[in-house]
């Protein structure tokens, strides 16, 4: 039986403590699945939470994390007739056979063509963040040209995609980051105004930049105190999109405040669209792929790491010290 190298988790804990490189059998695709040779696997915050056992998806132990890949199709499962061996695809692997390995499994319906405009590391970073931001900004918040968009964690995985998509939509983008290095990165992404939360008050910056009106749309993957303060600078009829709670505290919304200031609080659970509106993710991917071809939606990959370096890199991502996208490449 052919074997491969993969990161595996035998017990839950911090990524740098529980992830180990092991030799395991190369997975065989089941009905409706494909096997791919991993060309790139992006590191995401859900991978950190999965290692800790704190994510809503909890694969049975042992498992290989890695929720976002670009790969070359090597085998087709029964019933798969719309893909060919050798095709370059991207998407989310089928856990417990995740992307931090030499080979991974994917549901054939979750595999999408990888744009030739993106290299393997960029393509591996293109699925979750850009889909999340497109649905958040366009499907949920209906962002309009000329509006002001405030993006928290603007140098992070999903935040960086929101900056680019916000600019592409014709919005004025204010990015909030933590530290000078991340501020440089956010400017490179195209943010019009960058706020270093370590040295500046984003509430005051937003008010100053908008003549006291506030941001029309606030993109919040952080939650907690960040959300609480965002309500201080949301515009009349503004929209706050709740993406996640990377800050660690799930906030409670003061609905009387939303009523008095006439703003909306919108939730986004991107994964639900797969079952609720089949085909919509594929349509979104076509739009985003064209944007990648046009050069306006291209992930900025800051680090390319090997399989052995993933545990440390995931730990740094979880600690909030990474900048941009970090991708495992062979």
TrEMBL record:
Domain Enoyl reductase (ER): 13-328
InterPro entries reported in the protein's UniProt record: ADH-like_C, ADH-like_N, ER, GroES-like_sf, NAD(P)-bd_dom_sf, Quin_OxRdtase/zeta-crystal_CS, Zn-ADH-like_protein
Keyword terms, alphabetized: Oxidoreductase
Pfam families, sorted: ADH_N, ADH_zinc_N
Enzyme class: oxidoreductase
Superkingdom of this protein's organism: Bacteria
Coiled coil, from the record: none
PANTHER family the record matches: QUINONE OXIDOREDUCTASE-LIKE PROTEIN 2 (PTHR43677:SF4), SHORT-CHAIN DEHYDROGENASE/REDUCTASE (PTHR43677)
Name of the protein described by the UniProt record: NADPH2:quinone reductase
Organism: Allobranchiibius huperziae
């Amino acid at each position: 039986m052919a074997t491969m190298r993969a990161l595996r988790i035998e017990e839950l804990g911090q990524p740098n403590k529980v992830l180990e490189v092991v030799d395991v059998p190369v997975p065989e695709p089941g009905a409706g699945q494909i096997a791919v040779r991993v060309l790139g696997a992006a590191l995401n915050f859900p991978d950190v939470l999965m290692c800790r056992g704190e994510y809503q998806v909890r694969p049975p132990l042992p498992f290989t994390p890695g929720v976002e890949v670009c790969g070359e199709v090597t085998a087709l499962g029964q019933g798969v007739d719309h893909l060919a061996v050798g095709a370059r695809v991207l998407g989310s692997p089928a856990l417990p056979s995740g992307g931090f390995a030499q080979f991974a499994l994917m549901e054939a319906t979750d595999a999408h063509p990888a744009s030739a405009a993106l290299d393997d590391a960029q393509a591996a970073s293109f699925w979750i963040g850009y889909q999340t931001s497109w649905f958040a900004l366009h499907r949920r918040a209906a962002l309009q040209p000329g509006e002001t968009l405030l993006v928290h964690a603007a140098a992070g995985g999903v935040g960086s995609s929101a900056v680019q998509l916000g600019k592409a939509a014709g919005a004025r983008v204010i990015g909030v980051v933590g530290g000078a290095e991340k501020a440089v990165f956010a400017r490179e992404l195209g943010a019009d105004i960058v706020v270093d939360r370590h040295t500046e008050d984003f509430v005051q910056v937003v008010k100053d930049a908008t003549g006291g009106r506030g941001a029309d749309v606030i993109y919040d993957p952080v939650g907690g105190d960040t959300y609480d303060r965002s309500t201080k600078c949301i515009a009349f009829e503004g929209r706050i999109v709740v993406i996640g709670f990377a800050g660690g505290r799930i906030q409670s919304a003061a609905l009387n405040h939303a009523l008095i200031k006439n703003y909306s609080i919108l939730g986004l659970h991107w994964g639900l669209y797969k079952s609720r509106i089949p085909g919509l993710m594929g349509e979104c991917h076509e739009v985003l792929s064209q944007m990648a071809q046009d050069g306006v939606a291209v992930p900025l990959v800051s680090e390319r790491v090997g399989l052995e370096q993933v545990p440390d890199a995931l730990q740094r991502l979880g600690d909030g010290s990474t900048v941009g996208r970090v991708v495992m490449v062979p």
